[in-house]
């Protein structure tokens, strides 16, 4: 069984929760990523913001949404996984929560970001369920 600690994690792009949604979109574009970690205070992970979050926010609330502060529009706590868990656990968690990016932690310490793409080589061996169900 492959552990998450044995996989190369992405170095996450992050932004303060005090910044505006448009700044998050610009940062994603600059770095060519589909999500960023939102940090508050002294680097505490508070959320993961995705391109989908931004598009849906604009669709529901209009273009003014992009000028809102991130902390005013992101209301959910981030879903994280411990680095000692298995690749199968991560794949199940991503499928259950319908997410493609998962922050990896050791206690309070952020280790990196796991993408569904990084899991693909391991899924056949480590995931004991059928994704087509």
Task: Chart the SSEs and their pairings.
Elements: E1 14-16, H1 21-31, E2 35-40, E3 44-50, H2 51-61, H3 70-73, E4 81-82, H4 87-97, E5 101-106, E6 109-115, H5 116-126
Parallel strand pairs: 1-2, 4-5
Antiparallel strand pairs: 2-3, 5-6
Helix pairs in contact: 4-5
Keywords: CBS domain
Protein name: CBS domain-containing protein
Domain CBS: 1-65, 74-129
Distinctive features:
133 residues; alpha/beta; 36% helix; Diverse_CBS-Domain
What can you tell me about this protein's structure?
This protein is an alpha/beta fold and 133 residues long. It is 36% helix and 23% strand. The protein has one domain: CBS-domain, CATH 3.10.580.10. The chain has 5 helices and 6 strands, in the order E-H-E-E-H-H-E-H-E-E-H. The strands form 2 sheets. It has a 3-stranded mixed β-sheet with strand order 1-2-3. A 3-stranded mixed β-sheet has the order 4-5-6. It is globular, with a radius of gyration of 15 Å. The two termini are 23 Å apart. The model has no long low-confidence stretch (mean pLDDT 88).
The parts where pLDDT drops under 50 for at least 5 residues are none
Strand content: 15-25%
First CA to last CA: what distance?
23 Å
For the record, the count of structural domains works out to: 1
**What's the total count of β strands?**
6
Morphology: globular
Number of distinct helices: 5
> What is the spatial order of strands in the main beta sheet?
1-2-3
Tell me roughly what share of residues is in helical segments.
25-40%
The succession of helices and strands, N to C, reads: EHEEHHEHEEH
The largest sheet, given as strand count, sense and whether it forms a barrel, is: 3 strands, mixed
CATH architectural designation: Roll
CATH class: Alpha Beta
In the CATH hierarchy, the third-tier topology is known as: CBS-domain
Q: In CATH, what is the homologous superfamily?
A: CBS-domain
